[in-house]
Structures are given as structure tokens and as C-alpha cells.
Specification:
Layout: E1 2-3, E2 11-12, E3 18-19, H1 21-37, E4 46-47, H2 50-58, E5 65-70, H3 73-78, E6 80-81, E7 86-95, H4 102-110, H5 113-137, H6 142-145, H7 149-164, H8 177-204, H9 207-210, E8 225-228, H10 232-239, E9 244-247, H11 250-258, E10 264-268, H12 269-279, E11 284-286, E12 291-300, H13 307-317, H14 321-331
């Protein structure tokens, strides 16, 4: 049997023995075959890379290949597969944001270039209105807008702010006809300014901007993406013309993500969840998004006599409490099946 380390489906234990979801399934197959033939059956595991595993099956050099092998059209043309024993899909891993950084990200958004430009534009419009009302009120309304250029313009700014926010204290009121016309126009212009300002602030502080730049597959084209070489996720990224980096295994890819060398990893969701929960907890998170559904099965040479017995075991175990318990032990409660 050809296999490779793909936790939690196939991995080596403390003493070098093979364990995992797929390995437990194969042991059930072994037990079933022994009971049917009343002969002892020995399993020999041969560790290989994914492409070598598939080539060995296609050429009949091994009896089967089992790990986390996805069934697809190209592979089905070369070999046979059992019924799927696990159904999942691709996921996206990103760097986790510590909870104590929420305020720092909030402050970064508030003092961003876009937000400061909004405030500068608002102040410029208020200043223009203040200068205009001061120009017409400085002589006939000295008690409210008099006292020199600086004092008069600051009084105009106060009037513009009070009018814009519809507070209406009434301590500053234009008395000239031109001044009142400016006030009349400013009241209606203020409605549009407040609406635009509110929309801009909401956009600057939106949740998606405060969190990760990636929330789903649609965001992958604008960030640095990585995946595992010779995987179905590599084929997915190529088909959508997304530029990506290749790593030999998921652990190396997650290390690169942790160091900030890439911004997202696309790979099998259950495998990434297992790795992040055990080695990158609090540093990397797998988004709650599942796409490009895929099935894991055992690869066999064409016309293999093992296909039917293995299918019977898979069908017997599928949905049984025992098998759900096995999946929960490896994947945790609430796993995708």
C-alpha cells in the first residue's frame, strides 16, 4: 500500500507506526478480508510522494494508494477508485488577528489617508462658508461676526458647524440678506455633506477592512497566495489564472504564511484545520468557507479485486456511530462530512 504523511488522514505515530483516518479505514478492510478468507493478511506500507503513489497504482506496482487522495477526471482515466470515504473541499488559511489588536486596527482605519482626506475636505467647505458669511456680516453684525479677521472667521466656523449639524444654538445668526442667502444654501448643502460624510466613515470603518483582506475565493487574485505542489488546489488556482507559490507540503506553506511571506493558502480544508489547531493555534485561522467540493477515496489499479470488498466496508462504516467517532477524534466535533 502506497501512502504519505497527510495529517490527519495518514501520519506516523510516536513509534513510527502509521495512524490516521485512512489508516483506520484500511485496518477495517484488513479485518473484513481476513474474516472472509479466513487467512491472515499482512499490510506493507510504502511511503511515496503523491505523484509517485499515483504512478505506482496506474502501473500496478502497488495494490492500492491511500492517504487524502481526491477523485478527479484525470486520475480516473488512469486508475480506479473506491467509493468516497470522506467529502470535504478546499479552504483558505490566513493569518489570525490577535484580539488585542482590534483597537490598533481601528485607529489605523480612523487615521488612514482616506479618512483624513474626508476630514480635510469637510473642513475646507466649512471654512469657505465661514469666510463668506464673515465677509457679508462683519460690518452690520459686529457683535456676532466682528472683532477682526481671525475672530470673525472663527465665529463663522462655529456658525457653519452648528448649522451643518442642525444643532441650532442661535448664538450666531446672519442678519444681512446675502448672509442669510449663504445660510439658506448652507443648510441644504449640509444635508448632502453629512450624508456623504457618514457613508465615507462607514466605508473606512467597515468590518472587512478592519479584518483580513481575504474573506473568500473572490479575494485571492489580489493577494499573495500559496498552495501545495501537485495538489488539486494547484489545479484550481491555475484554472482561474491566480498567481501562486508552491510549497512541498502544507506545514511548510503554513510556516511561510506565519512569517508573512504569503497572505493566504489554498488547500484541503480538513488538513489545514488539523495542522493549524495543533501547530499554529492563535496564529493562523482557516476561514469558514468551503469551495470546490472534493471527495477522498482509495486509488486502485484498474479491475482490482480489492475494490468491491473495500466498497462494502466503506458503505458499512459510512454514517455509523463508530466511524463518526473516529472522524471526531481526528477532526474534532463539527467536522465537515
Amino acid at each position: 500500500m502506497a501512502t504519505r504523511e497527510v495529517p490527519p488522514f495518514a501520519m506516523k505515530g510516536e513509534h513510527g507506526e502509521w495512524i490516521g483516518i485512512t489508516i483506520d479505514l484500511l485496518r477495517e478492510v484488513k479485518s473484513e478480508l481476513q474474516n472472509a478468507s479466513e487467512q491472515e493478511i499482512q499490510f506493507e506500507f510504502r511511503e511515496m510522494k503523491l505523484e509517485a503513489m499515483l504512478d505506482a497504482v496506474a502501473q500496478g506496482k502497488v495494490d492500492l494508494a491511500a492517504a487524502a487522495i481526491t477523485v478527479n477526471y484525470d486520475r480516473e482515466k488512469r486508475m480506479d477508485f473506491t467509493h468516497p470515504f470522506h467529502s470535504s473541499g478546499l479552504g483558505i488559511a490566513v493569518r489570525a488577528h490577535p484580539r488585542n489588536s482590534e483597537w490598533s486596527r481601528l485607529m489605523a482605519a480612523v487615521f488612514s489617508t482616506m479618512f483624513l482626506r474626508i476630514l480635510a475636505g469637510l473642513f475646507a467647505v466649512m471654512l469657505l462658508s465661514a469666510i463668506a458669511v464673515y465677509f457679508f456680516e462683519r460690518k452690520r453684525n459686529k457683535e456676532q461676526f466682528g472683532g477682526g479677521l481671525i475672530r470673525g472667521i472663527t465665529s463663522g466656523l462655529w456658525w457653519a458647524a452648528v448649522t451643518l449639524t442642525t444643532v441650532g444654538y442661535g448664538d450666531k445668526v446672519p442678519k444681512t440678506i446675502p448672509g442669510r442667502l449663504i445660510g439658506f444654501v448652507w443648510m441644504f448643502v449640509g444635508l448632502f455633506i453629512i450624508a456623504s460624510f457618514t457613508a465615507a466613515v462607514t466605508s473606512a470603518l467597515t468590518v472587512t477592512q478592519l479584518k483580513s483582506r481575504v474573506i473568500g475565493p473572490a479575494d485571492l487574485s489580489r493577494v499573495k497566495v500559496a498552495t501545495v505542489q501537485s495538489s488539486t488546489s494547484e489545479k484550481y488556482l491555475r484554472s482561474r489564472q491566480i498567481v501562486f507559490k508552491k510549497y512541498p507540503d502544507v506545514r511548510v506553506a503554513l510556516e511561510a504564511l506565519k512569517k508573512g511571506q504569503v497572505e493566504a493558502i489554498v488547500y484541503d480544508a480538513p488538513i489545514m484545520r488539523y495542522e493549524t489547531n495543533r501547530h499554529f493555534e492563535g496564529e493562523i485561522q482557516v476561514l469558514p468557507v468551503l469551495f470546490e467540493r472534493q471527495n477522498y477515496a482509495i486509488a486502485l489499479p484498474n479491475d482490482s479485486p480489492l475494490r468491491e470488498p473495500i466498497n462494502q466496508v466503506i458503505l458499512r462504516l459510512s454514517g455509523s456511530p463508530e466511524w463518526k467517532s473516529v472522524l471526531a477524534d481526528y477532526l474534532g466535533e463539527g467536522f465537515e462530512q
